[in-house]
Each structure stands twice: as structure tokens, then as C-alpha cells.
Amino acid sequence: MTDSQGHDGGAQHRRLDAVWANWPGWRTLAAVNHTSIGLRFMLTGVFFFLVGGVLAMLARTQLALPAQDILSADVYNQVFTMHGTVMMFLFAIPVLEGLALYMIPKMIGARDLVFPRISSLGYYCYLFGGLIILSSLFVGQAPDSGWFMYTPLSSAEHAPGMGSDFWLLGITFVEISAMAAGIELTVSILRSRAPGMTLRHMPIFCWYILAMALMIVFGFPPLILASVLLELERAAGMPFFEVAAGGDPILWQHLFWLFGHPEVYIIFLPAAAVVSTLIPVFAQRPIVGYRWLVLAIIVTGFISFGLWVHHMFTIGIPKLAQAFFSVASMLVAVPTAIQLFAWLATLWTGRVIRSLPMLWIFGFLVIFVCGGLTGVMLALVPFNWQVHDTHFVVAHLHYVVVGGMLFPLIAGFYYWLPHFSGRMSTPVLGALGFWLTFIGFNATFLLMHLTGLLGMPRRVYTYEAGLGWDWLNLLSSVGGFVMAAGIALVLLDIALHFRFGRPAGRNPWNADTLEWATNTPPAPYNFASLPALDTRHPLWRQPELLQSIPAGEHGLTDIRHGRRETYGTEAVSGRLREVIHLPGNSWLPLLGALMLAVVCVSLLVRIYPMALLGVVGAAVFLLRWGWENGAHPRAAPLTANEPDNPPLHSRTCDGPGLWGMWVTLMANGTLYLSLLFGWFYLWTAAPQWTTPETLSVDRVAMVAAGLVLTGAVVAYGRLVRALCKGRATFLAGGLLLVTTLGCLHLAVVLWALLGAGLTPTEHAHDAMLLVMFLYLLFHAGLATVLSLLQALRVRLGYVGVRLPYEPVVLRPLWLYTLAVYWLSVALFLFLPAAWGAGG
Amino acid sequence: MLQATHPFQLVAGLLVWAIWFVVLYAGLSVGCAVAPPAAEQGDLNWLNGGLGAISLATTLLLVLAAWRCWQAAAVPSVDRQGAFFARLGAAIHGVSALATAAIAIPVVAYPPCV
Amino acid sequence: MFAHRRLWSAVAWLTRPRVAVLAGLAHVCLLTGCAGEYSTLDPAGPSALAVSWLWWGMLLAFGLVWFAVIGLWLLAVRRDPGDVSDAQAQRLQNRWIIGGGLVLPGVSIAVLLAFGIPVGHGMLPLSADEDVLRIEVTGYQWYWQVEYPDAGVSLEDELHIPAGEPVHIHLRSNDVIRSFWVPRLAGKLDAIPGHENVLKLQADQAGVYRGLCAEFCGLLHADMGFTVEAHEREDFEQWLSDAARDD
Fold first, then answer.
1. Nearest residue in A to B43, CA atom
2. What is the DSSP letter of A800?
């Protein structure tokens, strides 16, 4: 095969291209295609990596010699805070999300992700949020309380500038993109695999990404809640973390690390996915212990949620509780060791081909194993008490995240370069770049362990001479610049390869996974025809796929209808269920994200009317987005000859949207559980928490409102059941009835809230109650508005007996709203009273 | 009862572990807030005893579930997909049991509330 | 066996220069580095001493693990496996993964806990030693307020303790979170607004020990150092009564 663009049936490809291509010129900003969005994520991530790197070099310059004042304490605090923030939130997570968004559909034999517009929205939220955070450096108001933002240091009293607001609002904005990617990847992996690809036939990469996506779904909500609460405290004076008013700063630490520790594994798992994908290719034999790896992935995903307190061993919680978390932290080494020995055994049984990607994997091994071992040391509580918050931890965490994330990522970049560009990189420059990076990294951070043991604390802008830290810091700084030179060479190598690299041809590494069956660079639709698969190693077992896919010999080749389509399959068995029709290029995600950026900036500068306008604007664009679905003329209007075997997904009572709704509600439920945790935590642990003697909320009204809501949800459920059985006689009227009940419910709850006379700026108790009320009102309000729109869509013929999909998707939201309502009434309003009466 | 070959077995054991872990930590915290045993009692008190008993019961439950999955995977009539889930489910229940037992060990070593 | 000789040559190749480097590093450390004023490797109290032994033990054990894994990897990459059937690969897989992935970390964790739990227990300020000296330390931006409540003495950034016996430091904070740490004596403990934490501190010999704030506490975080001066018991009584009179 000499021509990587070789087409059989060029006319078919032109037709596919007309439907799938991005718009040309600047209108490419409306692209929703996962290949484009994935690449944009990765490029933007690399940009932020360079920003974070420059900040690191500034910090190392300041620390190179004792008692320097190149940077003032104030600037240094901003620099290290921004370094951590940028590297974690704007580089590590997004760049890996980008890789996953790019790869997953290609590996599972799909044409796109199942919610393409969400990819685009996620990207723009990331981009705008990142730029807002970055702008804080240029207005000299960057956050300076550390990337962990411990309150009260980050509170309005001790950080009166805009720095903390930049962090809280900007990061929350960026988190939208992580949540979007988490939900979208989960549903795509579960519901759009190639027909016949059962769970146990998934490439191991997909297991890793599925675990990462689910960890995002459960890991990020605590941080989002914490950020919202802290911003409410700063902007509106609601004292969640203020001791005197019944709050507690430790609550922030719990919520932050509930996110923060899983986060480490959220970035390690996809990197390990790269390692597990590359090693079998370069050993030229299947990975040893596929089931062991799946076991390790699942165990990591769970156990990593039980470690967060190991970041808090010095705050003075009971020793027994510390011991629980200490053992759990050590246990997480078990799945990591399982993976390590599976990789070793694979190499042991294969003839290993030496290559640049494998060199980076070797660097990963040396560095990450060291970081893992110091991690086990740190999990030992007495040792932790000594080295916590010293440079020993700085060294450890860089060994873990640079070794466990950056090195595999660069290995992956080199491995997939031919896929992105169609060309191979040059070996010499790349090897030089690796050795400089590797040596520079170890010079910087290996020594830093000793610096920490000699007692140098973290986050000090300078130190006095003669403490034994001088030569160590100097060498660390020199190492840092060597590493920077290595990274520069890698980037140069990659840039040059676009011009000078030799053409790669197809599947240049003789890989086993399906992404190498696309053109290189890939066409926007990935595959001209979608094959059925029943092997983990499609390109090894069926090499003829390289010809038969572009020749159009497999499924879903009809493109005359002009819709973007991919297969929808059953989650476990991979049996073909439906054809998922996907939206094309759209401005709505960009406009929605722009409006959210307006909200973010308005809150930052505290011009609240403008923020309100932004919210309304965002709502308009997002609802319009939902409007262009199903049988809408811009989606998949009903036609005379509908495909029925398999049917279009919007003609069924199940589909990716329903799964998307459930996954979203799992994330939402985690947010709610975090709120409940905050409520019970403050109640039991805050030093000056008080529950008022008599509750001012009218509980009778709340129960009445709950009964109305229950009526609405029961009615909605009956409508949906009838609809899926083919009866829709009373559909529009029924939906209007549900809407009316929803409005009534909202009115009563609002009345109860206004009549309660809460004083949320004086007591954490009332502040918590207010947040709970707003949460309930938002959910009931959203479900009500969406039901009203459904009623309209029934009138317009977009929803009906042949189109039952959308009301089905909406039903879990109603159920969820009902569940959190009764839970809230019981736990926030009745339980404290009952407890008080009992004791 | 959930079939031993059901895909949910991939997470069931760890879900049980997670719930047990929350009960353990919350039980300790609330116990220390409501009726802290005196430190002089060492690890022989109602709180450590209760947490230990819950942990033991959870471990036994998980071991039982692991054994059940393992048996189901060995049945010749089971299809490969089902055997995959049962085998993995057995391992995951086993690991969960180990994790439960290991994390609970400090209950016999430390007084609860200091 | 041939494979064995290869393995040994690889191990020798790996360890020869590196042992020298390690020994050299340890030498440098003992001569110059370990003896810093904030050095946890130059312990002067029972807690810090116990932890420094934990460190050297873990360094040795984990250093061996590290080199072994890297050696295995290099060997695996270089060797020619010949034809490995799927059944052989399966056996090898189970042996390696169970040995390296389950037994190795399992045993390591058990050993670590066997040493670590008693050490941790010894560092706890149990109420059994109730007659120990109580010192109250409160963090301010950016200094430490030190109070001796029984004697009515009040100081800044300066503690005095009797040598050879434990004292209890009661830690509070007036504003933000910070962490009280005297590296040569004991581990660190946070001072948190609204909470009180108790740290057990003991210096074996009389002398001056330096301490610092370990938790980032704002602009002048780097300048929150303090000293702990340990006196012989009689000298301490003398100092305390003098200080009480001056106040």
C-alpha cells in the first residue's frame, strides 16, 4: 500500500465527505466532529502545558539560590498557585480527554461520539475558562492561595482581591468540559461499539477510558459543589467555611480531596491505557492478562475514592480513622502492581521492537515506579507527619504525575503521530529530546526528595543559606532547565516532522486496534463502512479490514439521506439495536459557551444584571439546541421510507440520550450527596454549628408541595408508558397537565422559602437550607420547562407515537427531582427536629 | 438474587466495599461525636467492637459472593461472556474482601477517638 | 543455565555503578547534608528518631524493589523469548502477576504496618501522661504566640521546654490554617481556626531546635520560623520562674 489516501469508490467518499466535513474557513468553529474537537483539545492542552512550564521555570529560577528576590513573595505565591492550577486543570485532564475523544470512536468502530455538540460545548468551555484563568496573570490578580485553595486563606477576609474568584469561577467553568467528556465517553463506549464487540472484546484502552470517564462523573461533583459554596461565601457572605457562623474550613478540605485524589487516577488511567496499548504492539503479541488488567482498572476506580484523607493526615483527625485511610492508600498499590507485572510479562514473552515510543515508556517505568514507591511511604502515617508539606512531597507528586502521565502521553503522541499527520517522526532528534527530558527530570526531582527530608517546606518563596538546601536547589534548578530544553526538542521534532517526516503508509506499527484502519490523517467519518467485529485484535486477526472498510463492504454505507449516522449497540453484548443519527456542524455550542463565559466574567467583576442576561442567553441557546433534535427538520424528520431494521434511535424508547440522562443524573446525584455530606458534616463536626430551636420553614406546605410533585411525576410516568405502548391520545394535554402541576409545586415551594425568613449570611445552617431550596427549585423548574416544550413538540409533530423518544429521556429527570425533593424534606427539615426531640 | 454471570458483578463487590467504607468512617466519626469511649479502654470498647463486627460480616459476605461467582464460572454450560463476568466478579469480590479485612485491621490496634 | 547467567550479568551491570553512586550519596549526606538544622535525618527526639529509622528501612527495601523492576524490564526488552505458546504465556502471566502484583505489595504492606503502627502509636499524645507540661501555641499572620497557662508566661516565636520529657503543645489558629513543625523533634500538626490539636514534643538533649510553618499560610509563609530551646529540668524551672516574674 503506497497511497495512504487510496480510495476505492471515490464518489462514495465524496458523498460521505459532503455530509461529514467541517465547514471551511473560520466557520470551522462550528465543527462538532470528534476528530477535530479531540485535536483542538490536545493542541490547547499543549499550549497551557507550555504556560505552566514557564511558570515552573520562574519558580525554579527564584529558588536556585538562597535569599534571592527575583520574584517577590506575592508574585511567587501567584506563580506556584497558577503552575499547579494550569498543569492539573488546563493541561493534564483536558489533553487526556482530547486523546480519548479522538481515539474512542475509532477504536470501537464508530463514526463519531454519540453527543457531538457536547464535545464542542466542552471544548469551548475549556478554552474560554482557561483563557479567563490565564488572564488573571496579566491583570496581576492571579490566585495566590495554592492550587488547593484552602479556606480561610482563600476567603474574602484573607484573599480580598479577585484571585480566588478567578480560580473558583474559572475552574468551575472548565469543569463543564470534564463533565461533558465524562458523560459522553461513558455513553459512547457503552452504546456505540461495533456490532458484535462485546465488553470482553473491547480493546483494553476502552476499559481504561470507561473507568476514567466514570471517575470523572463521580469525582468532579464534590469539587464543583465546594467551588460554588466558597464562591457563595466570598460573593454573598454565606458562611459555609467560617467557624464563627457555624461553618468549618475542614469541610473544604474534605470536598476538595474527595475530588483531588481520584483526580490523580483520572489522569493516570488514560496514561496507563496508552502504555497497555503500546506494549503489545511493540512486543507484537497480545497483552498478557487482559482480565487481570480489567480487574486492576475497576479496583483502581473504586479504591482511589477511599484515599482522600491521606492528604489530611496532619489536621488532627482520630488516629484510627487515619489508619483506615493509610491502609487503603497502600492497597491502591496492588492494582498498580498488577498492571506493572502484566506489562513486564508481555514484554518477557514478546520480541520487543525498539522505538521512540518504547523509550518514553521506559522513562515512564523508571519514574512512575519510584513515584509509586514513595507514595506507599507517604501512606505510612508517622512518616507522613514528618515529610508532609515538604519538598519530599513535591518530588513524589512530580514523579507520579510526570512519570505517570506526561511520559506515557508523549509516548502516545509519538505512536499516533502518523495517525494525526500521515508521517513518521525522525528518530535522532526525538531520542535526544527524550534523554534531555529524562535526565533533566531526575536531576530536578530525585534530589528534591533529599531537600524535603532535610526539612525544606513547600511553597516558600525563599530560604536562608547554610541549611544544607543550597546545592540541592541549585542542581534542581539546573535540572529543570535541562528538562525544559528536552521538551523544546520534542516539540521541535514534532513540528519538523510535519514537513520532513517520511510518509507513514497505513498501520505503520502493525498495530492490532481499529483506529489504524482509518485513513491517515483520518477522514471525518472515520470509516466508509462499519464492520462487525468479534475479536480484541481486529487488524491482526482480520488484516483484510484495511481494504474492505474503505471499499464499503460493511454496514451503514447509505448516505443519500444526508444524515450523519453511526450504529447503536447493546451495552454488554454489542448486539446491533439502532442507527444513531447525529447532529452536524452547529453554532449553538459556541454561542452557549460564549453566554456562559459572559456569566463567568460578570460574576467575576460582580455586575449581576449582566450575569442574569448571560444566564438567559445561555438558556435560550441550550434550549434551541434541544429543539433541533428528533424529527425536527434539521435533525431526522419523518419520511415515507423510514429504516426499520434497525430503526433510527429517535423512533425507539431507548437510546443514547436516555443513557446520557442517567449518567448525568449519577453525576448530579453525586453533587447532591456532596451537599448532604456537607450538611451532616457541619451538623456533627463544625465547632459552633447551631440548629435553630424552631424551624421557620412551613413543613406542612412543603409536604403539600411534595404531594403535588408526586402527582406530576406519576402522571408523567403513565403518559410515557402509554406512549411506548403506542397510545398517545392524551399526550399533549397530559404534558400540559404535568406542566401545570409543576408550576403549582414551584409556587408552593417558593412561597415556603420566602415565608421562612432565612438569614443565610448569618448562619451556616440557613445558608445550607437556602442552597438546598435553590437546588430543588432548579430541578423542578427545569423539568417543568422541558415538559412544556415537549407539549409544544407534540403539537408540531416532532414527538408522537412514532417518535416516543424524547418524553422517555425526560422521565428520569422527573424521578430524580421527586427523589431529591423527599430526601431533602426528610433530611434537612424533619430529621433535625426529630433528633432534637429525641436527645 | 443477582445472577453470578451478570455484568453487574464487575462492580457489585466494590460497591459493597464502598458502602462498608462509608459506614466505617461515618460510624467512627459520629460515634466519637456522640458517645466517645475513653482512651484508657484502648481498643476494647463498644465502638471498635461494633466497627469490627460490621467489618467481619462484610468480609464474610464478600468471600461468600466471590465463591459463588467462582463456582458459576466453572459450570460447563455457561457461555464465554457469562464466564468472563463470573470469573472477574469472583476476583473483584475477592479483592474487595481482602481490602475490607486489611482496612479494618487497625480496629484492633488503636483506641477510636484520639 | 544460560538465562541465569544473563540475568546475573544484567543485575551486575545494573548494580555496580549504582551501588557506588548510592554509597557516595550516603557518604555526602552523612558528611554534609544530614546534619541540617531542619533535617529529619538528624533526629534529636524519640518521634523524629523512630521516623528516621522508618525512612532508612523503607529506602533500602523499596530501593531494591525499584532496581529489580527496572532490571527485569531491561532484561525483558533485550532477551529473545523464542517461541512462547499461549499456554506458556498464561502460566507465566499468572505466576508473575500473582507474585509481583499481589504477594509483593501484600507482604510489603504487612511489614510496613507491623513497623508503622507501633511507631505511630508512640507518637500519640495520650491523656495518660496528664502531668506533662502544657504549652499553648496560637498562629497569627505571621508569628506564633506562645503561652504557658500555668505560669502565666507569654512569648513570641520562642518555646522553652524541659529536655528528656514530653510536653504537650496545644495548637490553635487565630486566622488561617498553618502547621507547627520542629523537624528534628517530631512530626508536624496543623493549627486550624476553631479547632485545637495536641502535639507531643520531646527533645532528648538540651539545645536549640528550629521550627517552621509547614502549611502555606499566605504572604510571609516563609518567615514563620521559631525556636524551641530545651533546658535541663532545673534550668527550665529556673527559666520559667524568671520569665513569670518578668511578665
1. A320
2. B
The pLDDT of residue B34 is 84
Q: How many CB atoms lie within 10 A of CB A32?
A: 26
Distance CA A59, CA B52 (A): 48
Provide the residue ranges of all domains of chain C, joining segments of one domain with +: 2-80+92-122, 133-246
Q: Above 50 in pLDDT, residue A741?
A: yes
**Exposed/middle/buried for residue A785 (C-beta within 10 Å: 0-12, 13-18, 19+):** middle
Q: How far apart are CA A93 and CA A401, in angstroms?
A: 11
Buried b (16+ CB within 10 A) or exposed e, A371-398: bbbbbbbbbbbbbbbbbbbbbbbbbbbb
Substitution target in B24, B95, B98, B108 with the highest count of A β-carbons within 10 Å is: B95
pLDDT value at position A68? 94
Residue given cell 512550564 in the structure block: A53
Instruction: Over range A294-310, report the average pLDDT.
Output: 96
Cβ atoms within 10 Å, residue A215: 21
User: What pLDDT, on the 0 to 100 scale, is given for residue C33?
Assistant: 61
**Contact partners, residue A624, CB within 8 Å, separation at least 6:** A588
What cell numbers appear for A754 in the block?
420566602
- Domains of chain A, with CATH numbers? 29-500 (1.20.210.10), 690-839 (1.20.120.80)
- Residue A582 — pLDDT band, cuts 50, 70, 90? very high
B: neighbours with 3+ CB pairs under 8 Å? A, C
- pLDDT score, position B109: 84
Question: Cβ separation of C109 and B109 shorter than 8 Å?
Answer: no
Letter for the amino acid at A676? L
Q: Output Rg (C-alpha) for chain C, integer angstroms.
A: 25
- Residues of chain B found within 8 Å of residue C200, distances taken between Cβ atoms: none
Unique residue bearing C-alpha cell 496508552: A274
Say if residues A249 and C192 touch (Cβ distance below 8 Å): yes
Q: Which of C109, C113, C124 sits opposite B114 (nearest CB)?
A: C124
Helix (H) or strand (E) holding C208: strand C207-213
How far apart CA C68 and CA C52 sit, in angstroms, is 24
Q: In sequence order, what are the residues at sequence separation of 6 or more whose Cβ sits closer than 8 angstroms to the Cβ of residue A575?
A: A195, A196, A569
Collect all residues of chain C within an 8 Å Cβ-Cβ radius of residue A319: 120-121, 124
- C104 chain-A contacts, CB cut-off 8 A: 337
- The percent of chain B in helix, strand and coil, each rounded to the nearest 5, is 75, 0, 25
Of residues B7, B33, B106, nearest to A685 (C-beta): B33
Work out the minimum CA distance from A231 to partner chain C, whole angstroms: 18
Distance from CA of A599 to the nearest CA of B (A): 37
Interchain proximity C117–B109, CB inside 8 Å:
yes
pLDDT at B33: 85
Cell of B49: 467492637
Q: CA neighbours within 13 Å on the CB side: how many for A141?
A: 16
Kindly report, residue by residue over C15-37, the tens digit of the pLDDT. 444 445 555 555 555 655 688 89
- B104-114 mean pLDDT: 87
With vertex at residue A543, the alpha carbon angle to CA A538 and CA A548, rounded to the nearest 5 degrees, is 95
Q: What is the CA radius of gyration of chain A?
A: 27
Candidates C90, C93, C95, C197: best to mutate against A (most CBs of A within 10 A) is: C93
Which helix (H) or strand (E) covers residue C189, if one does?
strand C189-191
Homologous superfamily of domain range C133-246: Cupredoxins -  blue copper proteins (2.60.40.420)
CB A450 within 8 A of CB C34: no
Query: How would you write A557-601 as a 3-class SS string?
Result: CCCCCCCEEEEEECCCCCCEEEEEEECCCCCHHHHHHHHHHHHHH
State yes or no: pLDDT of A3 exceeds 50.
no
The CA distance from C216 to A291, in Å, is 44
ipTM of the assembly?
0.97
What confidence tens digit (pLDDT) does each residue in A265-298 have?
999 999 999 999 999 999 999 998 999 999 999 9
